Amino acid sequence: MNIEQPLLPGTSLGGTSPRAVWDGFHAPRLTQARRLAGLTKREVADGIGVSAAAVGQYEAGTNRPRPELIPRLADVLDVPIQFFVAGRPMGKVDSSMAHFRALRSTSGAQRERALGFVEQVWELTHALEKRVQLPPVNLPGFTGGEVSPGAELPEDPVGAARALRQHWGLGDGPVRHLARRMEANGLIVVAPAEAEEAAAKVDAFSSSGLLRPVVVLTPNRADDVYRYRFSAAHELGHLVLHAGATGDIRLEREADAFAAEFLTPQKSIHPLLPRRVDLAQLAGLSQTWGVSVNSLVYRYRELGLVSDATISRAYQRLRGLSAQPGFAPQSVRGYPGEQPVMLSKAFELAEQDTGLTIRALAAELAWKPARVRELLGMPDSRPVLRLV
C-alpha cells in the first residue's frame, strides 16, 4: 500500500494551467486514469498523437507529456487536467490485493479497471473521513483493523464464520441487512450503478490492501438479492481468511464455505431442512434466511444429508420453476437494508455540518462532479435540457 502525502499548503487545483500541471505531473495518476478509462497505451497514444512508447515513458516517470498535450490527455481519459497533479492522497491497489468472485471469466483489462475503481472509492472515503467519523473497522483477520489485540478467527472457513457471527453478536438466526451490517463494522461496501463500467463488467470483488477493507457488489448481482447477499458473504470470507493470497480456486471454495455457514449456520439450518428435498418448504426457508433455494439444496450436499443423484434431480426441478413466484430472482432494489449507504450518509452529514458541496469535493479530489455523484450513488436529479 502506498498512501501519498496531502496537498502541500498554498497549492491549489482550481484554475490550474497546463504548464502548472506539467510542473507537478504525477505519473501514477496517468496510469490510474488510463485504467479507469479502460484504454491501452496505444489507444491513449493515438488519441493524443504520440507513440505508445511515449505514453509508457509518461507512466514510468522517465518523461512528461508536453504542456500542450495535457488537455488532450484529460479529454481522452475524461478527467480534469488537475487530475494529473501530484500531492493528493492516493491509495494504490494491485492485483495481489484483490479477490475477484469469477477470476477466470474476468480479463486482465477488466481487473485493472476495477482496481482503479477501488482506488477512487478509497480516495472518496478518505476525503469524507477527514470530516466525518466513520465506524471503526471491526474485522478480525484484517491487518488494518481496529479490533482489540488478540482478536483472531479460526483458519478453517466454517470455524471462522461461526466466530465472526459471535464477534458481531449475530446469534444463530438469519442475518438481516447484511450490507448495512458490514458497513456498521467499518467495511466500505459499494454497489456501483450500471453506468459504472469500471466495475460493472466484473463479478463481485474485494480488497484488503488499503486502510479499510472494500467490497464491491456489481450490478449483475443486484438483479438477485439472494445471489447478491451470498456474494457479500463470500467476499467477507476472503477478507478474514485470505489476506495476502489471491487467485486460487481453493480460496474461492473456502470463501463459499464461509458464506454458507455465515448465512445459514449448520446447527440452526440442519433441523429446519425437510428430510426429503421439498422445494416448496425450501422456498419458505429461503425467504426467512435470505438465501436462494439453490443454496439451500447445496447445503444438503455440504451436510451429507442426501445423495448426489437426489441433488441433481432437485436442481433439474428448480430450473423448471425459475420463473415462478418464490423461485424467481428478486432485485436488491426491493431490499433497502441490503443497499450500502455509508458514503452517501457521510457526505450528507458533512454537507450539514461543514457546508461541503459536490463541487467542492470534486475540486478536492480533482474529479468531475458527475464522478463524485456516481460513486456516492447520488445521481443528478435536475431535468436534462435537450436541444433538437
UniProtKB/TrEMBL annotation:
Keywords: DNA-binding. PROSITE patterns: HTH_CROC1. The keyword NAD does not apply. GO terms for molecular function: DNA binding. It holds the Pfam family Peptidase_M78. It comes from the Bacteria. Residues 30-84 form the HTH cro/C1-type domain. The keyword Lipid biosynthesis does not apply. Belongs to the short-chain fatty acyl-CoA assimilation regulator (ScfR) family. This is DNA-binding protein. The lineage of its organism: Bacteria, Bacillati, Actinomycetota, Actinomycetes, Kitasatosporales.
